[in-house]
Recover the amino acids of this structure.
């Protein structure tokens, strides 16, 4: 999936769960964090060609295992954290979970074990960048607007008055 799809889905779901604005922002970041981590790890290779090879080899590997993101999400809920930290950790974990869930829809899928490329799970519903993905993205945007339109207006007003958590 493209980053815009990951971010739209995570933000829409975070809003539906009534996460505070800091949690929604963190979900938006967490929604692309698995890919960002893969890019950073690949960036350690000495040449641009080497970086692309490393990225192709590691992408949708350990960073795309649902267990890391579930653990972060559950830890945030179980720890006694101040409201801002709770919102941020919950949002990051939730964003990572939504990223992995969306990548399950693609033919390449996601790993069932953190450090293995063998066992993968895929629903094969739409390829990255395909018409199917953009239809899915459109459905997300319309659903968020339909179900959350009034709440979105309230959120924008709240942010305008400095209420971030």
């Amino acid at each position: 999936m493209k980053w815009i799809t990951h971010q739209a889905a995570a933000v829409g779901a975070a809003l539906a769960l009534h996460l505070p604005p800091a949690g929604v922002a963190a979900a938006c970041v967490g929604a692309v964090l698995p890919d960002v981590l893969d890019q950073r790890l690949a960036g350690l290779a000495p040449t641009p060609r080497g970086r692309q090879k490393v990225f192709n080899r590691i992408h949708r590997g350990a960073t795309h295992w649902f267990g890391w993101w579930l653990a972060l999400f559950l830890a945030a809920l179980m720890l006694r954290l101040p409201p801002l930290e709770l919102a941020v950790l919950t949002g990051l974990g939730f964003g990572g979970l939504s990223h992995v869930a969306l990548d399950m829809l693609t033919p390449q899928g996601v790993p069932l074990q953190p450090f293995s490329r063998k066992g993968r799970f895929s629903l094969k519903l739409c390829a990255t960048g395909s018409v199917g993905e953009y239809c899915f993205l459109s459905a997300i945007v319309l659903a968020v607007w339909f179900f959350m339109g009034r709440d979105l207006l309230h959120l924008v007003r709240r942010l305008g008055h400095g209420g971030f958590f």
